[in-house]
Amino acid sequence: MVVDGLRTPFVKAFTDFTKLDTIALGVAAARGLLKKANLGRRDVESIVWGGVILPGTAPNVGREIALDLGLDPACEAMTVTRACASGLQAVTLAAAAIERGEADVVIAGGSDSTSNAEIKLPQKVVHALAPLALGKADPKAILGAVGKLAPFTDILPTRPKIAERTTGEVMGEAAEKMARRNEISRAAQDAFAARSHHRAAAAMASGRFDDEVTPVETSEGKWVHADGLVRADTSEEKLAKLRPVFAKDGTVTAGNASPLTDGAAAVLLMSEEKARALGYRPRAAFSSWAYVGVDPADQLLMGPALAIPKVLDRAGRSLAEIDLVDLHEAFAAQVLCVLKMLGSTAFARERLGKAAAVGEVDPARLNVHGGSIALGHPFGATGARMVTTMANELVRSDKQTALLGICAAGGLGAAALLERID
Amino acid sequence: MSDVLLQIGKNAQARAFVNALGLPIPLPVPLRRARGPWRERPLADASVVVGASAGAELAPVIAETLAAAGANAYLTGADSSASAFAAPGEAYGRPARALAALGESERVAGVVFDATGLEDVAGLRALYETFHPLVSRIARSGRVLVLGRPSGKGPAASAAQAALEGFVRSVAKEIGRGGATANLVRVEKGAEARLGPVLRFLLSPRSAFVTAQPFVVDARTKADGDKPPFVRPLEKKVAVVTGAARGIGAATARRLAEEGAHVVCLDRPGDDGPTSQLARSIQGTALLVDLGADDAPSRIADVVRGLGGLDVVVHNAGITRDKTLGRMSEKQWDEVIAVNLGAVVRTHEALEPLLREGGRVVCLSSIAGIAGNVGQSAYAASKAGILGFVAGLAGALAERGITVNAVAPGFIETRLTAAIPVAVREAGRRLAALGQGGLPEDVAEVITFLASPGAAGITGRTVRVCGGALIGA
To answer: pLDDT per residue over B109-137, tens digit each?
Structure first.
């Protein structure tokens, strides 16, 4: 049962949150959630956290959050990573644990601080210097280490980038390739991106996000109250002026892709009995979820087009019955490709073994308050953000079902179906 | 002995130098080959041009195969088959485009021409119209595939269909110097569904040394309707390879194992070392048997029974005792016939009851068995006998879903051919349309394909792996 959810503002990497690492961001989101839900420190039994860029010295971010928050030391914690679906993975793991009776009260969510990505030393340096670090640093050993380091060109620290380990393809290149192969135009991408910004701006202006975003104090003592990336004043015309980033004659630009972002989001999950006993009103529950994999060398970001039909089948629903659809916007091109696949009978026949297309998604029901293009995409946080926004939206707009879809590095796809509880 | 010309050809500067000298030495182009096991999309991002005669019927299979294999299709002319390409293009995100969309100077990885609708001699003009502008644009190790029917309705249609073979054989020789191949696939009515895997194989780098020949795809072997697997096709299957110690046998055993088969590596007790080493490295079973011994068939059958059954048999073991007929001893003659043909028949008879439904039998023949060769009367007789054996057996086993085929290697770089005198060896290499010898792996790829579930449409046939070496025939 999803009882509540909260997130930090999402801000551009290397801006306000530069000095806050992923643990600090997670603490901020979880602390805000505890306060908002008026939950006792002892009530939380478990933390399940998602993250992509994990700190090398403390990779179990979830446990660090629990300790930093001063939760009962008995509150156990784990950290999961499933690229951009890490946040959703954490939430569905928590739901599964509650279903199995392992816990009654769990905080699940995720965070990422691109600003704090560690610059990695090449393994060659690590291996060459190991004798010095672990043994005696006599001149012979030093010379030996230096010898192993030559030639020196490949021992420079490498800039972290979001490239596939198997194919070396940068994610933007994958989106570019998918746009070309599925014939998604630049104009369609820009229009989608503009709409994402306009909807997110409208949600902010209307106060719609007020009870799901908690202010965060930076180390400089500044309070950040609102998302920093949404541009109310953007337009298709403005976006059309941007230059493509990943190919000369390409269509993917900084404007129609999700930006590097710092932020965290947390969701409070409880068993139904416990929620009612503590006096909470659960908002929604998962009726199904699915994770899939595709060959990263083919169409890296098409996962949701396979995960969504699985989720619908498992829940015994059709796409037409779904009230709200929330797709993670890694790239406008990727969302539009997935929508095209869902609407294609040929795709359904060949790739899903179904006679009819999964269905068209009415733009009015899709990403009603914008998505990752406008709000930003702290990798581990996005799934938890989507769960929170959709659970709230089901209650506010008096709807029954919300479908979530996320694509992730490695050719992974995720989907989940939330149903409102009365 | 390594192929000096091929080595020079691999070096761009040396190549330019030799060409600048204007020597009458055609430098062979290194063939593009695939390593490792089969992949889901062997044609990833390859540009394949598709043309068709009026009334052609194979567009749905071609469209589906290309899109699933990762190729981008470009259609020639005002093609009525474009509609068949729409659905697969959409499903796999590879919409077919008009040939004009491809840059004028861009090379094409393959050309597929569907001539199944060809019914008269005048229709042959479509071949010229399609290939004339494209032949110079075929990429290194590119592929030409013409698809036809085994016979036509009436003599004129049969003439037109037969003409395709001469066309393909000649194109193969014309484009062979660029490492490219050309083949004809004749698809019987009702066997269209079995064409896909054959197309996939012939368009891929796996068929590097297969060129200038006709294939026939028919539906006489029983097959379940399931889509054959593209990767790990031999998962959970048991295979026996005779003569596995080295050369083609060893390469075949390795490839079959890579595709998931448990391989029984069989060779003579004298070759204990390499056979056992191979079996260990591919986690198979070593079996040391002299195929000439009386109890050989029953011993093999016992081992196979212990493995629970049999799916693939590759009769590869063979010997040469080359002598002109006048100089050949009685013993030599008997040895060659006994091992190359007699042992195959005897071994097969013992293993036939153990073959499971969907089994595959592949027998090694030789170009010598097709074309004959001085000093190889016994060898050629034994290898020609293999052709008769597979043709005769295919019909009998069709009901059980088992196919039987022969593979006829041409000049392959092995220990056998390294022993040939230098002048003859050079001639052997250069006579091929591809201008070079093949590798044991090239033969192994063909055998692996014939051993796969997707090869259900090919039975009782002989596939040459000779780089287009056969003159005339």
So the answer is: 999 999 999 999 999 999 999 999 999 99
User: Measured between beta carbons, which residues in chain A are less than 8 angstroms from residue B88?
Assistant: 346, 350
> Which of A298, A302, A337 is nearest residue B41 as measured by Cβ atoms?
A298
> Do A349 and B70 lie within an 8 Å CB cutoff?
no
- For residue B469, the distance in angstroms to the closest alpha carbon of chain A comes to 37
Over residues B431-435, the mean pLDDT reads 91
Q: Is there a contact between B90 and A347 if contact means CB atoms under 8 Å apart?
A: yes
* Whole-angstrom distance, CA of residue A298 vs CA of residue B100: 25
Tell me what the mean pLDDT of segment B157-185 comes to: 96
Whole-Å CA distances, A94 to A151, B80, B265: 49, 55, 52
Does the distance separating the beta carbons of A181 and B91 come in below 8 Å?
no
Domain that holds residue A40: 2-117+165-420
DSSP at A348? I
Between chain A and chain B, the number of residue pairs with CB atoms below 8 A apart is 38
pLDDT bin (cut points 50, 70, 90) of residue A146 is confident
Residue A109, H or E segment: strand A105-113
Chain B interface test: which of A173, A176, A181 (most B C-beta within 10 Å): A181
Q: Which of B41, B91, B95 sits opposite A350 (nearest CB)?
A: B91
Q: Domains in chain B, ordered, with CATH?
A: 26-32+40-217 (3.40.50.720), 238-465 (3.40.50.720)
Instruction: Give the number of domains in chain A.
Output: 1
- Please spell the DSSP secondary structure of A53-75, one letter per residue: S--TT---HHHHHHHHHT--TT-
pLDDT greater than 80 at residue B10: no
Chain B residues with CB under 8 Å of A181 CB are 93-95
Token reading at A301: 């970001």
Cβ contacts of B92 on chain A, cutoff 8 Å: 350-351
Q: Hey, what long-range contacts does B167-172 have (CB within 8 A, 24 or more apart)?
A: B167/B124, B167/B127, B168/B144, B168/B212, B168/B213, B168/B214, B169/B212, B169/B213, B169/B468, B171/B131, B171/B135, B171/B144, B172/B144, B172/B211, B172/B212, B172/B433, B172/B468
**Pairing status of strand B355-364 against strand B403-409:** parallel
Residue reference for tokens 């503009």:
A194
- Among A169, A350, A352, most B C-beta atoms within 10 A, so best to mutate, is A350
Q: Which of A183, A349, A350 sits opposite B95 (nearest CB)?
A: A183
CATH number at residue A363: 3.40.47.10
Residue B233, helix vs strand vs coil: coil
Torsion sign over Cα B5, B11, B17, B20:
positive
Is A123 inside a domain boundary?
A: no
Residue A224: burial class (beta carbons within 10 Å; 0-12, 13-18, 19+)? buried
In-domain check, residue A131: no
Residue B94: which of A181, A295, A302 has the nearest Cβ? A181
How far apart are the C-alpha atoms of A344 and A357, rounded to whole Å? 5
CA gyration radius for chain B? Answer: 22
* Residue A125 pLDDT: 72
Render pLDDT for A256-286 as a digit per residue (tens, 0 to 9): 999 999 999 999 999 999 999 999 999 999 9
> Is any Cβ of chain A less than 8 angstroms from the Cβ of B103?
no
Contacts of A17 (CB under 8 A, 6+ apart): A8, A11, A25, A113, A115, A216, A218, A224, A262, A263
Residue A227 counted as domain residue: yes
pLDDT at residue B473 is higher than 50: no
- Distance between alpha carbon B133 and the CA centroid of its chain, in Å? 28
| CB–CB contact A178 B68 (8 Å) | no
Chain A within 8 Å of B95 (Cβ-Cβ)?
Answer: yes
**In chain B, what residues touch A297 (CB-CB under 8 Å)?**
41, 44
By C-alpha distance, the chain B residue nearest A347 is B91
The answer to whether residue A135 is domain-embedded is: no
